[in-house]
Protein backbone atom coordinates (compact mmCIF):
# COMPACT_ATOMS: atom_id res chain seq x y z
CA UNK A 1 0.00 0.00 0.00
CA UNK A 2 1.35 3.43 -0.92
CA UNK A 3 1.97 5.70 2.05
CA UNK A 4 1.19 9.39 1.67
CA UNK A 5 3.17 12.04 3.54
CA UNK A 6 1.41 13.88 6.35
CA UNK A 7 -0.02 17.34 5.49
CA UNK A 8 2.69 19.97 5.38
CA UNK A 9 5.55 17.48 5.43
CA UNK A 10 8.20 17.83 2.74
CA UNK A 11 8.88 15.11 0.26
CA UNK A 12 12.29 13.53 -0.22
CA UNK A 13 14.78 15.94 -1.67
CA UNK A 14 12.57 18.98 -1.06
CA UNK A 15 14.27 21.95 0.58
CA UNK A 16 12.95 22.95 4.00
CA UNK A 17 10.95 26.14 4.53
CA UNK A 18 13.48 28.89 5.27
CA UNK A 19 12.38 31.08 8.18
CA UNK A 20 13.42 34.55 9.34
CA UNK A 21 12.65 34.87 13.06
CA UNK A 22 12.39 38.26 14.81
CA UNK A 23 11.81 38.84 18.53
CA UNK A 24 13.57 41.26 20.87
CA UNK A 25 13.85 38.66 23.67
CA UNK A 26 16.72 36.21 23.11
CA UNK A 27 15.14 33.53 25.32
CA UNK A 28 11.90 33.68 23.34
CA UNK A 29 13.83 33.38 20.07
CA UNK A 30 15.67 30.37 21.44
CA UNK A 31 12.45 28.66 22.47
CA UNK A 32 10.74 29.37 19.17
CA UNK A 33 13.79 28.17 17.24
CA UNK A 34 13.74 24.89 19.17
CA UNK A 35 10.10 24.38 18.19
CA UNK A 36 10.81 25.08 14.52
CA UNK A 37 14.19 23.40 14.04
CA UNK A 38 13.01 20.06 15.37
CA UNK A 39 10.75 19.80 12.30
CA UNK A 40 12.53 18.39 9.21
CA UNK A 41 10.63 20.70 6.85
CA UNK A 42 11.38 23.93 8.77
CA UNK A 43 14.71 25.74 9.14
CA UNK A 44 15.48 29.07 10.83
CA UNK A 45 18.04 30.78 8.58
CA UNK A 46 18.24 34.18 10.34
CA UNK A 47 17.38 35.74 13.71
CA UNK A 48 16.66 39.42 14.36
CA UNK A 49 16.30 41.34 17.62
CA UNK A 50 14.02 44.06 16.25
CA UNK A 51 12.02 45.06 13.17
CA UNK A 52 14.76 47.10 11.53
CA UNK A 53 17.23 44.23 11.85
CA UNK A 54 14.61 41.87 10.37
CA UNK A 55 14.40 44.04 7.26
CA UNK A 56 18.20 44.16 6.96
CA UNK A 57 18.46 40.38 7.29
CA UNK A 58 15.71 39.87 4.71
CA UNK A 59 17.97 41.67 2.23
CA UNK A 60 20.87 39.32 3.03
CA UNK A 61 19.09 35.95 3.35
CA UNK A 62 16.71 34.06 1.13
CA UNK A 63 13.71 33.35 3.35
CA UNK A 64 10.31 31.90 2.53
CA UNK A 65 8.59 32.94 5.73
CA UNK A 66 9.03 35.66 8.37
CA UNK A 67 7.85 35.02 11.94
CA UNK A 68 7.66 38.42 13.64
CA UNK A 69 6.93 39.50 17.20
CA UNK A 70 4.58 42.50 17.31
CA UNK A 71 6.15 44.57 20.11
CA UNK A 72 9.78 45.27 19.18
CA UNK A 73 12.06 48.34 19.39
CA UNK A 74 12.97 50.57 16.44
CA UNK A 75 10.32 49.06 14.16
CA UNK A 76 7.39 47.01 15.45
CA UNK A 77 6.59 43.68 13.85
CA UNK A 78 3.62 45.35 12.14
CA UNK A 79 5.81 48.07 10.65
CA UNK A 80 8.45 45.53 9.63
CA UNK A 81 5.75 43.37 8.01
CA UNK A 82 4.61 46.29 5.91
CA UNK A 83 8.18 47.01 4.77
CA UNK A 84 8.88 43.33 4.08
CA UNK A 85 5.71 42.96 2.03
CA UNK A 86 7.00 45.74 -0.23
CA UNK A 87 10.63 44.58 -0.23
CA UNK A 88 9.93 40.84 -0.70
CA UNK A 89 6.45 40.35 -2.20
CA UNK A 90 6.75 36.54 -2.15
CA UNK A 91 7.66 36.39 1.54
CA UNK A 92 4.89 35.01 3.76
CA UNK A 93 4.50 36.66 7.16
CA UNK A 94 3.27 35.29 10.49
CA UNK A 95 2.78 37.42 13.59
CA UNK A 96 3.82 35.77 16.87
CA UNK A 97 2.59 37.69 19.89
CA UNK A 98 1.59 37.58 23.54
CA UNK A 99 -1.27 39.97 22.76
CA UNK A 100 -4.74 38.45 22.42
CA UNK A 101 -5.87 41.81 21.11
CA UNK A 102 -8.38 42.58 18.36
CA UNK A 103 -6.67 45.85 17.40
CA UNK A 104 -3.33 44.12 16.81
CA UNK A 105 -5.08 41.30 14.97
CA UNK A 106 -6.77 43.61 12.49
CA UNK A 107 -3.58 45.63 11.97
CA UNK A 108 -1.66 42.40 11.31
CA UNK A 109 -4.13 41.33 8.65
CA UNK A 110 -4.10 44.82 7.13
CA UNK A 111 -0.30 44.78 6.63
CA UNK A 112 -0.47 41.39 4.92
CA UNK A 113 0.19 38.81 7.63
CA UNK A 114 -1.30 35.41 6.76
CA UNK A 115 -1.34 34.18 10.35
CA UNK A 116 -1.57 35.33 13.96
CA UNK A 117 -0.17 32.98 16.61
CA UNK A 118 -0.20 33.48 20.38
CA UNK A 119 3.09 32.81 22.18
CA UNK A 120 1.21 31.08 24.98
CA UNK A 121 0.27 28.24 22.60
CA UNK A 122 3.19 28.47 20.16
CA UNK A 123 4.28 24.93 20.96
CA UNK A 124 0.86 23.77 19.78
CA UNK A 125 0.09 26.13 16.88
CA UNK A 126 3.28 27.56 15.39
CA UNK A 127 4.40 24.63 13.25
CA UNK A 128 0.91 24.20 11.76
CA UNK A 129 0.74 27.98 11.14
CA UNK A 130 4.07 27.93 9.26
CA UNK A 131 2.93 25.12 7.00
CA UNK A 132 -0.45 26.78 6.42
CA UNK A 133 1.28 30.03 5.45
CA UNK A 134 3.33 28.24 2.81
CA UNK A 135 0.09 26.81 1.38
CA UNK A 136 -1.28 30.38 1.25
CA UNK A 137 -3.86 29.47 3.86
CA UNK A 138 -4.68 31.86 6.75
CA UNK A 139 -4.04 30.66 10.30
CA UNK A 140 -5.89 32.29 13.21
CA UNK A 141 -6.47 31.06 16.73
CA UNK A 142 -10.17 30.42 17.59
CA UNK A 143 -10.63 33.67 19.52
CA UNK A 144 -9.35 35.65 16.52
CA UNK A 145 -11.90 34.05 14.23
CA UNK A 146 -14.64 34.97 16.69
CA UNK A 147 -13.38 38.57 16.80
CA UNK A 148 -13.37 38.84 13.00
CA UNK A 149 -16.91 37.54 12.70
CA UNK A 150 -18.21 39.73 15.54
CA UNK A 151 -16.62 42.88 14.09
CA UNK A 152 -17.91 42.14 10.60
CA UNK A 153 -21.44 41.57 11.90
CA UNK A 154 -21.32 44.75 13.98
CA UNK A 155 -20.27 46.80 10.96
CA UNK A 156 -22.98 45.29 8.81
CA UNK A 157 -25.58 45.89 11.53
CA UNK A 158 -24.62 49.53 12.00
CA UNK A 159 -23.66 50.28 8.42
CA UNK A 160 -20.24 51.44 9.51
CA UNK A 161 -17.19 51.79 7.30
CA UNK A 162 -13.67 51.25 8.61
CA UNK A 163 -12.19 54.63 9.64
CA UNK A 164 -9.48 56.10 7.45
CA UNK A 165 -6.00 55.78 8.89
CA UNK A 166 -4.88 59.12 10.28
CA UNK A 167 -1.14 58.64 9.68
CA UNK A 168 0.64 57.28 6.63
CA UNK A 169 2.80 54.17 7.16
CA UNK A 170 5.97 56.25 6.87
CA UNK A 171 4.71 58.86 9.35
CA UNK A 172 3.92 56.04 11.77
CA UNK A 173 7.47 54.68 11.43
CA UNK A 174 9.00 58.12 12.04
CA UNK A 175 6.70 58.69 15.03
CA UNK A 176 7.81 55.43 16.65
CA UNK A 177 11.48 56.21 16.23
CA UNK A 178 11.05 59.78 17.50
CA UNK A 179 9.26 58.43 20.56
CA UNK A 180 12.12 55.99 21.18
CA UNK A 181 14.55 58.91 21.34
CA UNK A 182 16.33 58.53 18.00
CA UNK A 183 17.81 61.65 16.39
CA UNK A 184 16.77 62.80 12.92
CA UNK A 185 20.07 61.50 11.52
CA UNK A 186 19.58 58.08 13.13
CA UNK A 187 16.02 57.89 11.80
CA UNK A 188 17.22 58.82 8.32
CA UNK A 189 19.79 56.01 8.39
CA UNK A 190 17.29 53.43 9.69
CA UNK A 191 14.64 54.28 7.09
CA UNK A 192 17.04 55.01 4.19
CA UNK A 193 15.70 58.55 3.72
CA UNK A 194 17.28 62.01 4.04
CA UNK A 195 17.45 64.03 7.26
CA UNK A 196 15.40 66.73 5.55
CA UNK A 197 12.67 64.20 4.78
CA UNK A 198 12.65 63.07 8.43
CA UNK A 199 12.27 66.68 9.57
CA UNK A 200 9.40 67.19 7.14
CA UNK A 201 7.66 64.08 8.49
CA UNK A 202 8.07 65.38 12.05
CA UNK A 203 6.50 68.70 11.12
CA UNK A 204 3.64 66.89 9.39
CA UNK A 205 3.10 64.72 12.48
CA UNK A 206 2.93 67.74 14.80
CA UNK A 207 0.52 69.57 12.49
CA UNK A 208 -1.68 66.56 11.73
CA UNK A 209 -1.96 65.48 15.38
CA UNK A 210 -2.17 69.00 16.80
CA UNK A 211 0.85 68.43 19.05
CA UNK A 212 3.70 70.74 20.09
CA UNK A 213 6.86 68.75 20.75
CA UNK A 214 8.67 65.40 21.07
CA UNK A 215 7.18 64.75 24.53
CA UNK A 216 3.63 65.01 23.21
CA UNK A 217 4.55 62.85 20.21
CA UNK A 218 5.91 60.22 22.61
CA UNK A 219 2.71 60.24 24.66
CA UNK A 220 0.67 59.83 21.48
CA UNK A 221 2.88 56.93 20.33
CA UNK A 222 2.32 55.16 23.66
CA UNK A 223 -1.46 55.59 23.41
CA UNK A 224 -1.36 54.31 19.84
CA UNK A 225 0.53 51.18 20.91
CA UNK A 226 3.66 51.99 18.87
CA UNK A 227 5.95 51.99 21.89
CA UNK A 228 5.63 50.48 25.33
CA UNK A 229 5.39 52.89 28.30
UniProtKB/TrEMBL annotation:
Domain Response regulatory: 18-134
Organism: Streptomyces thermocarboxydovorans
Pfam families listed in its UniProt record: GerE, Response_reg
Record key words, sorted: DNA-binding, Phosphoprotein, Transcription, Transcription regulation
List of residues that carry 4-aspartylphosphate: 69
Name the record gives this protein: Response regulator transcription factor
Segments forming domain HTH luxR-type: 160-225
Superkingdom in the source lineage: Bacteria
Amino acid sequence: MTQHPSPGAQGAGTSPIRILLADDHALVRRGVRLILDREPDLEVVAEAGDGAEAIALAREHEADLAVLDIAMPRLTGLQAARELASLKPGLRILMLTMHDNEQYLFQALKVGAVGYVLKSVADRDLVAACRAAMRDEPFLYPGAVTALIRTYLDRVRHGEEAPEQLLTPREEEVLKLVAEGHSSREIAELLFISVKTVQRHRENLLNKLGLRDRLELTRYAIRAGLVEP
